[in-house]
Amino acid sequence: MQKGPLEDLPDEVNLALSELLTLDSQLALSNTCHYFNKLIKDKFIWKKRIAELKPFLSPFVNTGLPTKENFMALLTHLHARFCGEVLFLERVHPRLAALNHEHPERLLAVYQDIQRLKVLLQHFIQDNYLSVLTQANILLNQINQQIIEWQLAPHLVTPPVHLKLEHITRLPETVLTQYTNLFAELKGLELKDNFLDTLPININMCVKLESLNVYDNPITCIPDTLRKLAELKFLYFSGGNFSKLPEVIYSLKNLQWLSLDNMQLKYISEDIQRLKQLTWLYVRNNQLIFLPLGLSKLPKLQFFMGDNNEFHPLQPKAILCFLKKHGQQTKVKAKVRKLARSGEMDILSEQMQGLSLLPQFASKRYQRLVLPHCHPHQGELKRNFSFY
């Protein structure tokens, strides 16, 4: 059987083209084209199934086109995510015991919920995915709510200025809603060493927040409501996955310190120049190739650390001038045509891989930052005393 013109195109392309047609035109085409009729039916089947998964996904996840392949990818992602949360909770269980040494019954209840989760996810098959995801989601929210409430209990009478939450895989929106008065007074929120893949959409309830630490979390997306935290000055991420810097970060006009260590970052927009108050930028261990021209337009930038990236040696002229202006000890040249010999290119390439600007730090502080036996973040975090 000879293929028609529609069948020559991938299903995803046909589905996207169909969205450009009116409903009457779609129906007319499906009545005259057997292939398109089948495609439309499949589309609505998978659209419905993907819609069923949305309550378990972050609201910022792009679900893609309604195809079987996208549905299966989302289902696999959710199962892996839930299993990862169970493994994390099992790993921190001994630490949870320390929070409940006077209330062992509370720890037992959480332990039983974790075991129920394990059994549920072990019997996860395509036929019962919706029931399993619903029960697992309820249990995970319940477990995390309990763990957070244990840590909030000592602060309910006198709300703290700085709060540290540990041993959690998610920060439910209900927690911020239930403890509005507490979170509304926070100036520092530390969430490091958890298993968060996003922040709650009502994070804007922390209206006075100046410092937010999300180090060592597999975070993949940030809610747009973060832009409403007008007082935010210090923002730290590591261990997650942003192929490009989320647009919402460029709207944080008072941001002074920004850390994006080991975030799989490939691209920073020219909008970085909107962060006029930025003095400290840490983008080590990413996949950056070129620095944005906007970096050279940051009037207060004093500290930049970008080693362990795949920086191309031939950066834009403005960037090379910027590096020289800030005292970078490399033999960078504004006119790249002068780099004719391969030996010079190799030297410059090597220098770009260790790119760091530290003009305001004394030599001892610099050594504390770069010595291999030191924790790579210890020096930077301790200097931000508002964090603790």
Give an account of the 3D structure.
- There is one protein chain.
- The chain has about 400 residues and is of the alpha/beta class.
- About 40% of the residues lie in helices and about 5% in strands.
- The protein contains 13 helices and 8 strands.
- Strands 1-2-3-4-5-6-7-8 form an 8-stranded mixed beta sheet, with no helix packed on it.
- The model is unreliable at about 330-340 and about 360-388 (pLDDT under 50).
What is this structure's SSE topology?
Layout: H1 11-18, H2 23-32, H3 34-53, H4 68-91, H5 93-99, H6 104-122, H7 129-152, E1 162-164, H8 173-178, H9 180-184, E2 188-190, E3 211-214, E4 234-238, E5 257-261, E6 280-282, E7 303-305, H10 317-325, H11 342-353, E8 356-357, H12 363-370, H13 378-383
Parallel strand pairs: 1-2, 2-3, 3-4, 4-5, 5-6, 6-7
Antiparallel strand pairs: 7-8
Helix pairs in contact: 2-3, 3-4, 4-6, 4-7, 6-7
For the sheet with most strands, the description reads: 8 strands, mixed
Strand residues, percent: 5-15%
Instruction: Give the ordered list of helices and strands.
Output: HHHHHHHEHHEEEEEEHHEHH
Number of strands: 8
Shape type:
flat
Spatial gap, N to C terminus: 71 Å
Share of helix, binned: 40-55%
Q: In angstroms, what is the radius of gyration?
A: 25 Å
Provide the spatial order of strands within the biggest beta sheet.
Answer: 1-2-3-4-5-6-7-8
Structural class: alpha/beta
The assembly state of the depicted protein chains is: single chain
Tell me, rounded to a whole number, the average pLDDT.
Answer: 81
Question: Which regions have little confidence, pLDDT < 50, spanning 5+ residues?
Answer: 329-342, 359-388
How many helical stretches?
A: 13
